[in-house]
Design brief:
Elements: H1 5-22, H2 26-35, E1 37-41, E2 46-48, E3 56-62, E4 65-70, E5 76-82, E6 87-88, H3 91-96, E7 103-106, E8 110-116, H4 117-126, H5 128-154, H6 157-167, H7 177-184, H8 188-208
Antiparallel strand pairs: 1-8, 2-7, 3-6, 3-8, 4-5, 4-7
Helix pairs in contact: 4-5, 7-8
Length: about 210
């Protein structure tokens, strides 16, 4: 994989983050970096579409991705936002070679490190370090999916908005309202009402303190 200075910086940052989190050796990392590659996506560019088999794991080096569903009526439902350091994979494609049911789009100019399912499985078979990392990755993706489902079923729209603010604080004022509303499963009008209500409460709390 030919790299320039910017690529080297991105890969070094990724190596530091991954090696610390997964406890990987230098040799483990070098094997990984040789098997994958950096991919660049411009704002608005599709990474993959629903119906395609996308068997790659992506680690966001910089930028912002969004996984989303489209209903038969054409309504967009945002599934997840992926920022620097986040790991993304379509588990149905990655683990079972099935078509993805959701799509992925770059919401800003984005750089990812991508590696195929086959390469990841080979690394896991050859290295104890990557075997542990592989299990951690899949577990983290499954737990994220479970939490997202529980939040949608158990939390009110206001609670969902507050949760979004805690987990994605930098996106609250960066994303257009329709993206946030789509993620919360509400309309933009409902989102505006929630924000207005919370704003009134916050002003009251400040005046009372």
């Amino acid at each position: 994989m030919a790299v320039n200075n910017e690529d080297i910086h991105l890969l070094n940052s990724l190596e530091a983050r991954f090696s610390q989190y997964f406890g990987l050796s230098t040799d483990d990392w070098q094997r990984f970096s040789r098997q994958g590659q950096l991919a660049r996506y411009e704002k608005g560019q599709s990474v993959f579409h629903a119906g395609e088999i996308d068997d790659r794991v992506r680690i966001v080096c910089e930028g912002l991705l969004c996984n989303f569903y489209l209903t038969p009526q054409g309504t967009r439902r945002n599934k997840s936002f992926l920022q620097t350091g986040d790991i993304s994979a379509c588990l149905s494609s990655f683990a079972a070679d099935l078509p993805a049911r959701f799509s992925c789009e770059a919401l800003g100019n984005t750089v990812c490190f991508e590696i195929s399912a086959k390469a990841m499985q080979q690394l896991a078979n050859e290295s104890a370090g990557w075997r542990n990392a592989y299990v951690k990755m899949i577990t983290a993706l499954a737990l994220k999916k479970e939490k997202r489902e529980a939040d949608l079923l158990l939390l009110s729209p206001t609670e969902l908005y507050l949760e979004f603010g805690q987990t994605h604080p930098q996106l609250l004022n960066h994303l257009p309202n329709y993206h946030i509303a789509s993620y919360l499963g509400i309309t933009e009008v409902s989102l505006s009402r929630i924000r207005a209500k919370l704003g009134m409460q916050n002003r009251y709390q400040r005046q009372s303190s």
